[in-house]
Write a structure and sequence with these properties.
It is a single chain. The chain is mainly alpha-helical and 297 residues long. 73% of the residues lie in helices and 3% in strands. The protein contains 13 helices and two strands; from the N terminus they run αααααααααααααββ. It has a two-stranded antiparallel sheet. Helix 3 packs across helix 10, helix 5 packs antiparallel against helix 7 and helix 6 (95-102) packs antiparallel against helix 7. The chain is globular, with a radius of gyration of 20 Å. The two termini are 16 Å apart.
Length: 297
Protein backbone atom coordinates (compact mmCIF):
# COMPACT_ATOMS: atom_id res chain seq x y z
CA UNK A 1 0.00 0.00 0.00
CA UNK A 2 2.74 2.45 0.94
CA UNK A 3 4.56 1.75 -2.33
CA UNK A 4 1.47 2.48 -4.43
CA UNK A 5 0.74 5.64 -2.41
CA UNK A 6 4.21 7.12 -2.89
CA UNK A 7 4.33 6.12 -6.56
CA UNK A 8 1.03 7.99 -7.03
CA UNK A 9 2.46 11.05 -5.29
CA UNK A 10 5.38 10.85 -7.72
CA UNK A 11 2.99 11.12 -10.66
CA UNK A 12 1.92 14.53 -9.33
CA UNK A 13 4.70 16.43 -11.11
CA UNK A 14 3.94 15.02 -14.54
CA UNK A 15 0.17 15.35 -14.30
CA UNK A 16 0.51 18.88 -12.89
CA UNK A 17 1.96 19.87 -16.28
CA UNK A 18 -1.59 19.52 -17.61
CA UNK A 19 -2.86 22.22 -15.25
CA UNK A 20 0.13 24.57 -15.06
CA UNK A 21 -1.85 27.40 -16.70
CA UNK A 22 -4.71 27.14 -14.19
CA UNK A 23 -4.67 29.53 -11.17
CA UNK A 24 -2.53 27.67 -8.64
CA UNK A 25 -4.34 28.04 -5.33
CA UNK A 26 -7.83 28.03 -6.77
CA UNK A 27 -6.90 24.80 -8.52
CA UNK A 28 -5.66 23.29 -5.25
CA UNK A 29 -8.94 24.26 -3.59
CA UNK A 30 -10.87 22.46 -6.34
CA UNK A 31 -8.64 19.39 -6.06
CA UNK A 32 -9.07 19.08 -2.29
CA UNK A 33 -12.79 19.89 -2.41
CA UNK A 34 -13.43 17.00 -4.81
CA UNK A 35 -11.17 14.73 -2.76
CA UNK A 36 -12.94 15.63 0.47
CA UNK A 37 -16.37 14.87 -1.02
CA UNK A 38 -15.22 11.45 -2.22
CA UNK A 39 -13.55 10.63 1.11
CA UNK A 40 -16.61 11.71 3.11
CA UNK A 41 -18.77 9.52 0.87
CA UNK A 42 -16.37 6.62 1.48
CA UNK A 43 -16.64 7.15 5.23
CA UNK A 44 -20.43 7.06 5.01
CA UNK A 45 -20.43 3.89 2.89
CA UNK A 46 -18.09 2.23 5.39
CA UNK A 47 -20.37 3.18 8.25
CA UNK A 48 -17.83 5.56 9.79
CA UNK A 49 -19.79 8.33 11.43
CA UNK A 50 -18.48 11.74 12.36
CA UNK A 51 -16.34 11.56 15.49
CA UNK A 52 -16.52 14.33 18.06
CA UNK A 53 -12.98 15.60 18.32
CA UNK A 54 -11.18 16.57 21.50
CA UNK A 55 -9.02 19.65 21.77
CA UNK A 56 -5.78 17.71 21.16
CA UNK A 57 -7.19 15.96 18.08
CA UNK A 58 -8.51 19.24 16.69
CA UNK A 59 -5.13 20.93 17.13
CA UNK A 60 -3.33 17.99 15.49
CA UNK A 61 -5.72 17.99 12.52
CA UNK A 62 -5.32 21.74 12.00
CA UNK A 63 -1.52 21.51 12.25
CA UNK A 64 -1.49 18.52 9.89
CA UNK A 65 -3.57 20.42 7.34
CA UNK A 66 -1.55 23.62 7.62
CA UNK A 67 1.83 21.90 7.29
CA UNK A 68 1.33 18.62 5.42
CA UNK A 69 -1.13 19.95 2.83
CA UNK A 70 -1.18 23.74 2.57
CA UNK A 71 2.34 24.87 3.47
CA UNK A 72 3.83 21.84 1.71
CA UNK A 73 2.20 22.82 -1.59
CA UNK A 74 3.15 26.47 -1.15
CA UNK A 75 6.77 25.50 -0.41
CA UNK A 76 7.03 23.21 -3.44
CA UNK A 77 5.52 25.89 -5.70
CA UNK A 78 7.86 28.61 -4.38
CA UNK A 79 10.94 26.36 -4.52
CA UNK A 80 10.13 25.46 -8.13
CA UNK A 81 9.70 29.12 -9.03
CA UNK A 82 13.11 29.99 -7.58
CA UNK A 83 15.19 26.97 -8.61
CA UNK A 84 13.15 24.61 -10.78
CA UNK A 85 11.79 21.19 -9.76
CA UNK A 86 15.14 19.39 -9.46
CA UNK A 87 16.23 20.99 -6.19
CA UNK A 88 12.91 20.39 -4.45
CA UNK A 89 12.83 16.81 -5.70
CA UNK A 90 16.35 16.18 -4.44
CA UNK A 91 15.64 17.55 -0.97
CA UNK A 92 12.35 15.62 -0.74
CA UNK A 93 14.34 12.52 -1.62
CA UNK A 94 15.73 12.69 1.93
CA UNK A 95 12.29 12.00 3.45
CA UNK A 96 13.10 8.32 4.14
CA UNK A 97 16.18 9.22 6.15
CA UNK A 98 14.39 12.04 7.98
CA UNK A 99 11.51 9.76 9.02
CA UNK A 100 13.93 7.03 10.07
CA UNK A 101 15.76 9.50 12.32
CA UNK A 102 12.81 11.34 13.88
CA UNK A 103 10.11 8.67 13.77
CA UNK A 104 10.13 8.03 17.51
CA UNK A 105 11.60 4.57 18.06
CA UNK A 106 15.30 4.06 17.48
CA UNK A 107 15.52 2.65 13.94
CA UNK A 108 17.31 -0.63 13.34
CA UNK A 109 20.68 -0.32 11.56
CA UNK A 110 19.40 -1.99 8.40
CA UNK A 111 16.54 0.52 8.21
CA UNK A 112 19.05 3.40 8.33
CA UNK A 113 21.19 1.69 5.69
CA UNK A 114 18.14 1.14 3.49
CA UNK A 115 17.00 4.75 3.97
CA UNK A 116 20.45 6.04 3.00
CA UNK A 117 20.44 3.94 -0.18
CA UNK A 118 16.94 5.23 -0.99
CA UNK A 119 18.09 8.83 -0.50
CA UNK A 120 21.06 8.25 -2.80
CA UNK A 121 18.83 6.73 -5.46
CA UNK A 122 16.23 9.50 -5.19
CA UNK A 123 18.96 12.12 -5.50
CA UNK A 124 20.41 10.51 -8.61
CA UNK A 125 16.98 9.98 -10.17
CA UNK A 126 15.92 13.57 -9.51
CA UNK A 127 19.20 15.23 -10.45
CA UNK A 128 20.96 17.85 -8.38
CA UNK A 129 20.63 20.57 -11.01
CA UNK A 130 21.28 24.19 -10.16
CA UNK A 131 19.74 25.97 -7.23
CA UNK A 132 19.90 29.06 -5.06
CA UNK A 133 19.39 29.94 -1.42
CA UNK A 134 15.66 30.84 -1.60
CA UNK A 135 14.99 27.63 -3.53
CA UNK A 136 16.91 25.58 -0.97
CA UNK A 137 15.13 27.19 1.99
CA UNK A 138 11.69 26.57 0.47
CA UNK A 139 12.73 22.97 -0.30
CA UNK A 140 13.71 22.45 3.34
CA UNK A 141 10.31 23.80 4.40
CA UNK A 142 8.68 21.28 2.04
CA UNK A 143 10.79 18.50 3.59
CA UNK A 144 9.70 19.43 7.12
CA UNK A 145 6.06 19.54 5.98
CA UNK A 146 6.31 16.14 4.29
CA UNK A 147 7.68 14.63 7.52
CA UNK A 148 4.89 16.27 9.55
CA UNK A 149 2.34 14.79 7.11
CA UNK A 150 3.19 11.40 8.62
CA UNK A 151 4.19 12.16 12.21
CA UNK A 152 1.21 14.40 13.03
CA UNK A 153 -1.19 11.79 11.64
CA UNK A 154 0.12 8.89 13.74
CA UNK A 155 -1.66 9.90 17.00
CA UNK A 156 -4.93 10.42 15.09
CA UNK A 157 -5.08 7.19 13.09
CA UNK A 158 -5.88 4.66 15.87
CA UNK A 159 -9.17 6.40 16.73
CA UNK A 160 -10.17 8.12 13.49
CA UNK A 161 -8.80 5.73 10.86
CA UNK A 162 -7.30 6.47 7.48
CA UNK A 163 -10.51 7.56 5.73
CA UNK A 164 -11.59 10.10 8.35
CA UNK A 165 -8.11 11.60 8.82
CA UNK A 166 -7.83 12.01 5.04
CA UNK A 167 -11.37 13.42 4.74
CA UNK A 168 -11.05 15.90 7.61
CA UNK A 169 -7.69 17.28 6.51
CA UNK A 170 -8.66 17.67 2.84
CA UNK A 171 -11.90 19.42 3.85
CA UNK A 172 -9.96 21.78 6.13
CA UNK A 173 -7.53 22.57 3.31
CA UNK A 174 -10.24 23.93 0.98
CA UNK A 175 -10.99 27.26 2.76
CA UNK A 176 -7.26 27.80 3.36
CA UNK A 177 -6.45 27.46 -0.34
CA UNK A 178 -9.43 29.64 -1.27
CA UNK A 179 -8.06 32.32 1.05
CA UNK A 180 -4.63 32.06 -0.59
CA UNK A 181 -6.30 32.28 -4.00
CA UNK A 182 -8.20 35.41 -3.02
CA UNK A 183 -5.02 37.07 -1.78
CA UNK A 184 -2.84 36.17 -4.77
CA UNK A 185 -5.27 36.15 -7.72
CA UNK A 186 -8.40 37.98 -6.51
CA UNK A 187 -11.96 36.73 -6.57
CA UNK A 188 -12.24 37.03 -10.35
CA UNK A 189 -8.92 35.38 -11.16
CA UNK A 190 -8.60 32.45 -8.78
CA UNK A 191 -11.06 30.16 -10.63
CA UNK A 192 -12.17 29.63 -14.21
CA UNK A 193 -13.69 26.88 -16.32
CA UNK A 194 -11.00 24.24 -16.95
CA UNK A 195 -10.16 22.91 -20.39
CA UNK A 196 -10.70 19.20 -21.13
CA UNK A 197 -7.04 18.41 -20.39
CA UNK A 198 -7.15 20.45 -17.17
CA UNK A 199 -10.36 18.71 -16.14
CA UNK A 200 -8.76 15.29 -16.64
CA UNK A 201 -5.69 16.44 -14.71
CA UNK A 202 -7.78 17.66 -11.79
CA UNK A 203 -9.84 14.46 -11.80
CA UNK A 204 -6.66 12.37 -11.54
CA UNK A 205 -5.13 14.55 -8.83
CA UNK A 206 -8.36 14.55 -6.83
CA UNK A 207 -9.14 10.82 -7.05
CA UNK A 208 -5.82 9.02 -7.50
CA UNK A 209 -3.38 11.30 -5.67
CA UNK A 210 -5.57 12.88 -2.98
CA UNK A 211 -8.08 10.11 -2.24
CA UNK A 212 -6.09 7.04 -3.25
CA UNK A 213 -2.62 8.01 -2.04
CA UNK A 214 -3.81 9.57 1.23
CA UNK A 215 -5.94 6.55 2.11
CA UNK A 216 -3.26 3.99 1.23
CA UNK A 217 -0.50 5.92 3.01
CA UNK A 218 -2.48 6.42 6.20
CA UNK A 219 -3.53 2.76 6.16
CA UNK A 220 0.07 1.54 5.84
CA UNK A 221 1.73 4.09 8.14
CA UNK A 222 0.65 2.72 11.55
CA UNK A 223 1.31 -0.84 10.43
CA UNK A 224 4.84 -0.29 9.20
CA UNK A 225 5.85 2.60 11.45
CA UNK A 226 7.31 5.88 10.14
CA UNK A 227 10.87 4.58 9.65
CA UNK A 228 9.90 1.68 7.38
CA UNK A 229 7.00 3.46 5.69
CA UNK A 230 9.31 6.37 4.95
CA UNK A 231 11.44 4.12 2.75
CA UNK A 232 8.65 4.14 0.19
CA UNK A 233 8.89 7.92 -0.19
CA UNK A 234 11.87 7.12 -2.37
CA UNK A 235 9.39 5.96 -5.00
CA UNK A 236 8.26 9.57 -5.55
CA UNK A 237 10.95 10.32 -8.18
CA UNK A 238 10.36 6.87 -9.72
CA UNK A 239 6.69 7.76 -10.20
CA UNK A 240 7.73 11.07 -11.72
CA UNK A 241 10.09 9.31 -14.17
CA UNK A 242 7.42 6.82 -15.27
CA UNK A 243 4.74 9.51 -15.63
CA UNK A 244 7.05 11.71 -17.68
CA UNK A 245 7.78 8.81 -20.02
CA UNK A 246 4.12 7.78 -20.37
CA UNK A 247 2.95 11.35 -21.06
CA UNK A 248 5.82 11.93 -23.46
CA UNK A 249 7.28 14.70 -21.32
CA UNK A 250 10.72 13.15 -20.84
CA UNK A 251 12.67 10.01 -21.75
CA UNK A 252 14.36 8.27 -18.79
CA UNK A 253 18.14 8.72 -18.77
CA UNK A 254 20.68 6.17 -17.51
CA UNK A 255 20.93 8.21 -14.28
CA UNK A 256 17.15 7.94 -13.88
CA UNK A 257 17.28 4.17 -14.23
CA UNK A 258 20.26 3.81 -11.88
CA UNK A 259 18.51 5.97 -9.30
CA UNK A 260 15.31 3.95 -9.57
CA UNK A 261 17.28 0.74 -9.11
CA UNK A 262 18.96 2.11 -5.98
CA UNK A 263 15.59 3.16 -4.55
CA UNK A 264 14.20 -0.35 -4.96
CA UNK A 265 17.38 -1.84 -3.46
CA UNK A 266 17.17 0.46 -0.45
CA UNK A 267 13.53 -0.42 0.15
CA UNK A 268 14.36 -4.14 0.09
CA UNK A 269 17.25 -3.62 2.54
CA UNK A 270 15.10 -1.57 4.91
CA UNK A 271 12.09 -3.87 4.85
CA UNK A 272 13.71 -7.29 4.80
CA UNK A 273 17.04 -6.72 6.54
CA UNK A 274 17.81 -8.87 9.54
CA UNK A 275 19.49 -8.16 12.81
CA UNK A 276 21.51 -10.79 14.67
CA UNK A 277 20.53 -12.13 18.07
CA UNK A 278 22.62 -14.37 20.27
CA UNK A 279 21.80 -18.06 20.11
CA UNK A 280 22.68 -20.98 22.35
CA UNK A 281 26.26 -22.03 21.69
CA UNK A 282 27.51 -18.49 21.10
CA UNK A 283 26.56 -18.31 17.41
CA UNK A 284 24.42 -15.54 16.15
CA UNK A 285 21.25 -16.12 14.17
CA UNK A 286 19.22 -13.70 12.12
CA UNK A 287 15.94 -12.41 13.40
CA UNK A 288 13.39 -10.39 11.43
CA UNK A 289 12.54 -6.93 12.65
CA UNK A 290 9.23 -6.94 14.51
CA UNK A 291 6.60 -4.66 13.04
CA UNK A 292 4.43 -3.13 15.76
CA UNK A 293 0.86 -2.83 14.59
CA UNK A 294 -1.71 -0.34 15.73
CA UNK A 295 -5.46 -0.49 15.12
CA UNK A 296 -6.59 1.53 12.13
CA UNK A 297 -10.37 1.29 12.32
Amino acid sequence: MASVAMFMVGTLAGVSDLINEFPVYGGQAVRYAVGALVLLAMARLLGQRFVRLGLRETVLLVLLTLTGLVLFNVAVIESTRHAGPALAGTVLGTVPLALALVGGRRPAPHVLVGASVVVAGATIATGLGTGNLPGLLWSLVALACEVSFSLLALPLLPRLGAVRVSAYTTALAVPLFLTLGLVTDGAAGMLRTPTVAEGLGFAYLSIAVTVGAFFLWYTALPRLGPARAGLFAGLIPVGAIVTGAVLGLATPTPADLVGAGLVITGIVIGLYGRRPRPAAGGESVEEPEVIHRQPVG
